[in-house]
Amino acid sequence: xxxxxxxxxxxxxxxxxxxxxxxxxxxxxxxxxxxxxxxxxxxxxxxxxxxxxxxxxxxxxxxxxxxxxxxxxxxxxxxxxxxxxxxxxxxxxxxxxxxxxxxxxxxxxxxxxxxxxxxxxxxxxxxxxxxxxxxxxxxxxxxxxxxxxxxxxxxxxxxxxxxxxxxxxxxxxxxxxxxxxxxxxxxxxxxxxxxxxxxxxxxxxxxxxxxxxxxxxxxxxxxxxxxxxxxxxxxxxxxxxxxxxxxxxxxxxxxxxxxxxxxxxxxxxxxxxxxxxxxxxxxxxxxxxxxxxxxxxxxxxxxxxxxxxxxxxxxxxxxxxxxxxxxxxxxxxxxxxxxxxxxxxxxxxxxxxxxxxxxxxxxxxxxxxxxxxxxxxxxxxxxxxxxxxxxxxxxxxxxxxxxxxxxxxxxxxxxxxxxxxxxxxx
Length: 426
What we know:
Mean pLDDT: 85
Oligomer: single chain
Number of strands: 13
Order of helices and strands: EHEHEHEHHHHHEHEEHHEHEEHEHEEH
Shape: elongated
Distance between the termini: 89 Å
Radius of gyration: 27 Å
Structural class: alpha/beta
Strand content: 15-25%
Strand order of the largest sheet: 6-7-5-8-9-10
C-alpha cells in the first residue's frame, strides 16, 4: 500500500487598503504600512499573493472600497485563488459583513490579524487572558457581522483564540466572560504590584525595554545579561514579559524588563487588555527604547513608539534610545544625534555587542542612584566605618597611610552625605 504525504495548503491572502492622503502618515495606508501588513500576514502563517490600494478622500462607509475597486478586488481574489482578504485599517461591523457577502471569502482587518498573532504567541496564563480579553472586546460589537466567519473554527487566520463555543454564544455570555477575565487580570495586577514592591525594597533600578516590533529587544536583553531569550525574526515573536538582572560597574542593580513590541495602528483593545503588562513601562525608572537603525522607516517607528509611550503615561520617563543593528547600517551618520524627549542616543549591535559600554553608561547616567568616585580617609580608630564602606559600596582602590586607610569608593548622593566628613584629596 502506497503512503502519500498530505500537506496543508497555505492560506493565500490578498491585501487591501485605502490611501486618503489626509490622515497622519502613521494612520494612513501607505507603501510602508502595506509592506508591514504583508509581514504580519506571513507571521500569521499565510502567503500574501496580491495587493490593492485605492486612492480616495475617505473609505466608503458601507464597503470600505468604492464599487469599482471592490469588483476589481473580487476579480483579483478569483484569479489569484485567494481565500483570505486582509484590510490595512480597522473595519466597522457593517463593512465587515458587506465585504464578506460581496467577496465570498474570509475577510479580516489589521486589528484582527494582530490579535490572531498574539493568540498564537501567548504562552503564559497572563498572556492568554489578555489576548482573549482583547479578542472578545473586539468581537462583541461585530457578532452580527462575523457570524459566518466565526462558525468556521480553525478555518485559518482570524479564527484563533477563544474558540467556537464562546464566539457563537450570545452577547450576554461574552460579557460575562469579559467580566471574569477582567477579575483574573485584577489579581494579576495585584501580583505585579507585590513584585514591584519587592524590587523597590531591593533598591533595584527598573529599566523597561520598549520599541517597535522586531527591533531586536529580546536579542539585546539576552546579550546584555548573558542569558537565553526567545528571539526570532518575526513580528511579535515575544509576547510575555521577561525580567533579567544586571549590575552596573558602580554596583547598582538593574532589572531589565522586556516588553511586547509596538506597531502602527496597534488595536486599542489590545493596549487596554495589556495594561497590566504595559504598566511595567509607565512605572519603570528608565525606558530603553530600542530601534532598528538599519530600517529605512526607523524614524517613523520611533514616532509610533514615542506616541504609545506617551499614551501609557511614560512620556516623562528618562529615555535612552539605542539604534540597534549597527553592524548592518549603511549610513549611520544619517541617523539623528538628538531627538525631542530622548535623553541619550547610542549605536549598538545586539548581535555583536558593539556599543554596549556606551549603552550601559547612558543608562547609568539617567538611572536613579548614580554613583561617583570619591577619596575617603578613614582613621584606624574608626574601623566600623571602613567595614560599612566595604559592605555597602564598591571599593575601587585602597591603601594604608599614616593617618588611616585611604579608599576610593563609589557613592550615590545618600552615601556621600553619610561619609562626606571623611572626604580627602587623592
